[in-house]
Amino acid sequence: MEKSLVVKSGSLTESRRKFLEKAGSTLVLSTLGAAFFTSCSSTDDSDPTTPPGNSSSGITISGNTITINLSIQTGLNTSGSWLLIENARTLVANVNGAFVALTSVCTHSGCSDNWTFGSNRFTCNCHGSVFDPSGRVLNGPASAPLQQFTTQVSAGNLVVFK
Ligand code: FES
User: Fold this and answer.
1) pLDDT tens, position by position, for the chain (162 residues)?
2) Ligand 1, atom nearest to 140 Cα
3) SS3 20
4) What is the whole-number distance in angstroms between the Cα of residue 62 and the centre of ligand 1?
5) Host H or E run for residue 32
6) Ligand 1 center to residue 80 CA distance, Å?
7) Among its keywords, does the record have tRNA-binding (predicted)?
8) Atom 3, ligand 1: which residue's CA is nearest?
9) What is the predicted pLDDT for the residue at 7?
10) Looking only at Cα atoms, what is the longest distance across the chain?
11) What is the pLDDT of residue 12?
12) How is domain 7-161 classified at the architecture level of CATH?
């Protein structure tokens, strides 16, 4: 039986992004970002979340390859948008028009499902480690980088090679 796909996604609206930029503090950004992503509804600032299954989500996991149909996961076409594909333990984000993919298994103590993304930074909300889009540690307690995966756009799909 096929396991249902668990996906979280998000993106900041222009007004929310500008507000956060004006706040001007990394601490404020990560704090508000965490609260924002855990409290907003699907009609607020995030793109459609938690698609129920592979066929409707446009996301297919096959071995070490993840294929994301960008005409279904349209939110990912916007810079600042991101996905956490829990089943594949993978983070995907659009960073200034380029796609990045990283493991979602935090190098601090292994949390894999409690992430937010904002201002081009991934935050593991288990203990607050912050990583840049290439997986490098910006703030601990994690000390090792996240593994980065290769991405490729082909025929309207974003393909992630783990
Ligand atoms: S598990 Fe990610 S910061 Fe601790």
Assistant:
1) 445 677 777 775 444 544 444 433 333 322 233 333 333 333 333 333 444 345 588 999 999 999 999 999 999 999 999 999 999 999 999 999 999 999 999 999 999 999 999 999 999 999 999 999 999 999 999 999 999 999 999 999 999 999
2) 3
3) helix
4) 27
5) helix 26-39
6) 22
7) no
8) 127
9) 76
10) 49
11) 54
12) 3-layer Sandwich (2.102)
Cα–chain-centroid distance for residue 3?
21
126 CB within 6 A, ligand 1: yes
Encoded amino acid at 9, one letter: S
- Pair 113, 102: CB distance under 8 Å: no
Q: Residue 162 C-alpha to ligand 1 middle, in angstroms? A: 21
- 109 C-beta closer than 6 A to ligand 1: yes
* pTM (predicted TM-score): 0.73
Every domain of the chain and the residues it spans: 7-161
Task: Give the side-chain half-sphere CA count within 13 A for 107.
Answer: 19
Q: 124 in ligand 1 pocket by Cβ < 6 Å?
A: yes
Q: Is 162 helix (H, G, I), strand (E, B) or coil?
A: coil
CA–centroid distance, residue 128 to ligand 1 (Å): 6
Helices (H) and strands (E) in the chain, counts: 3, 12
